[in-house]
Predict the structure.
Amino acid sequence: MTDFATALNSSAEAVNAQLKALLPAAEGPEHRLLSAMRYSTLAGGKRLRTFLVLSSADLFEVDRRYALRVAAAVELMHTYSLVHDDLPAMDDDGLRRRLPTAHIEFDEATAILSGDALLTLAFEILAEEATHARASVRYELIRSLAAAAGCRGMVAGQMIDLDFENAEVDVATITRLQQLKTGALIAFSCESGAILGQAHGSSRHALHAYAHDLGLVFQIVDDLLDAEGDVRLAHGRRPCAHAGPEAGQSSEFPSRSVRRPRRGFARCRRFRHRAAFLSAEARFLVYMGVKRRRA
């Protein structure tokens, strides 16, 4: 775990440096917008998604300069989603990473526009030749990220989340929500290395399957664990009482779902020792889930 923590910190430092280069401080009329973009993007975080980008790219010996730009694009996309999620019309959160959220620190209009700008900047980065020499690779990165973030991915998950706020939902709906809202961007993060490395379909499929299993671990750690073992979502949602036995058993549902990483480890075996950090990330998330459950 120590080696993984060191690699995670090193990865975060490299990505942060890339983000600072892509989001320079500006003067003039656009200063407020760029300040809000920098404020939200450089506020910290473990950078787990960007770590997945860099680790998957390493599997295919991708130029680190290419991988860092894609990782930055993923973080910009992720940050845009957080800025908009925090808005009064959505989750109405006042704190993010122990700091005031963008609409509190600035104002609601600035937060909306800064999120819009982060979203579009992510695609601008992927479109530039500095991200990859081959236009076909850049096209596939743009297409895949758009699919992961849009109406069949992250945004759809957010809509489902709002639709079922404070409502009882079954386990299948919760799982679908998290596959879209959280899992789709995780899947792109994992697959982007294969895209950059122009890998065969089987390798990309293995990474997608790994990402699917990893996304379900994110689901547990982020939403489903409660100190008393009661299965419920952090925003007040509970699995419906009629959803079947796993929905009502506080120990069985999480423990069954935590087995997902075992499959994730198996997906990585085809890459041998090169996938050590991908396996370590899954173990890290399980550790965080177990630690939180015992709290």
